[in-house]
Amino acid sequence: MNSIVSSRVFRNYYRQRTANQWHKVEAEGGVPGAIRPFLAGNWKMNMVPRSGVALAARIFDLCRGVKDVDIGLAPPFTGLSMLSDYIKPDFLRTEYDLGRNVFLLAQDTFFESKGAFTGEISPEMLAAIGVDRVIIGHSDRRTNLGKYFGFGSSVARRLTREFLTKELERLKAKGGADPKIVAALEHLVAEGNQEILAGTAKFFEEELKQRAGESDEAIQRKVHAALGQGLQVILCCGENLEARDTHETFTLLERQIRIALDGVSPRAMHDLIIAYEPVWAVGEGAEPATPDQISEVHDFLRNLIMDLYGEQVASSIRILYGGNVKPDNIVEIMAIPGVDGALVGGASLRAKDFADIVKFGLEK
Ligand code: PEP
């Protein structure tokens, strides 16, 4: 055990709700019922298994003796097994004076348990290899899939008069089609000139490329499936720049949270962590949100949870911030009332940076 580190004081956090405001009170030596900060590293599509274990070992070495925060590591699927074998509590305790405060995270999961879903990974599969928590609804998956996979091109290819004519004939022959669809196809076949159809096709192709990704409904199914397998969930939400610029931030966040949590019981909420990640603040080169912006959204989210689940859940749920968290801004971010930790992308790939983030509360 490294006595220098363990004898340092870690500022602990205790929240109180007064006059519609959540306050963070610093206290030394731990407070009963205090919320433990959670610092999670999302490695995204980086690190082969062996280099992931090496990175984890460097992080643990730099974080020796840190017990007052929860630490999460989210390697890609291929790295989970090897890391799971490495981060056994007994080993972490003897080697690094760490223990049960290290959690293995997956970056995503599917909602079905098994079947013809080539390429997908189920919650059962994650639980079976020792995954503790799973990130669901990350903005990379909510918005970027259309761009990478060219969603929309198959729709665009079909928006020709020839295809629509054949489709109309097929639907009529089959019978029972939605009359609205039949009427629209009849109109397009009769009136739509080739140029308008080509323009419409281009419009939808661009739209889908820009915006298509996991829906709120798919995210809801994933949340239920993961919780049902005993995995804890880190549910990401966040507005894009367009929503922020048009003052739609809160409407969008409320929709994301309400749909994702629909049907989740108050009891299951103890296994749920929210990560607020404004899309415009995520990724190398972006600017993190300001403390005022973070504070305003965290208050909003906590009050929303209060409306949905009541005070007990609202006061105990952890709400993390993510978006360019770095060693030089973590102290300021963690000082914001209502911020209980961070989801870290780029900086989590650098052992020293991530360790400094984890150790934000240690007296220097
Ligand atoms: C993320 O991808 O979840 C993230 C917050 O990335 P970064 O820290 O690089 O902005």
From TrEMBL:
E.C. no: 5.3.1.1
Reaction(s) the record says it catalyses? D-glyceraldehyde 3-phosphate = dihydroxyacetone phosphate
Q: Which PROSITE patterns has this protein been placed in?
A: TIM_1 (PS00171), TIM_2 (PS51440)
List the CDD domains.
TIM
Q: Which domain of life is it from?
A: Bacteria
Residue positions annotated to bind substrate are 42-44, 283, 345-346
Supply the alphabetized keyword list: Cytoplasm, Gluconeogenesis, Glycolysis, Isomerase
Q: List locations, semicolon-separated.
A: Cytoplasm
**Pathway it works in:** Carbohydrate degradation; glycolysis; D-glyceraldehyde 3-phosphate from glycerone phosphate: step 1/1; Carbohydrate metabolism; erythritol degradation; Carbohydrate biosynthesis; gluconeogenesis
Q: What is its main location?
A: cytoplasm
What is the uppermost EC class here?
isomerase
- The active site is formed by 138 (electrophile), 277 (proton acceptor)
GO MF terms on file?
Answer: triose-phosphate isomerase activity
**What is its biological role?**
Involved in the gluconeogenesis. Catalyzes stereospecifically the conversion of dihydroxyacetone phosphate (DHAP) to D-glyceraldehyde-3-phosphate (G3P).
Subunit and interaction comment: Homodimer.
Q: Give the record's family classification.
A: Belongs to the triosephosphate isomerase family.
Q: What is this protein called?
A: Triosephosphate isomerase
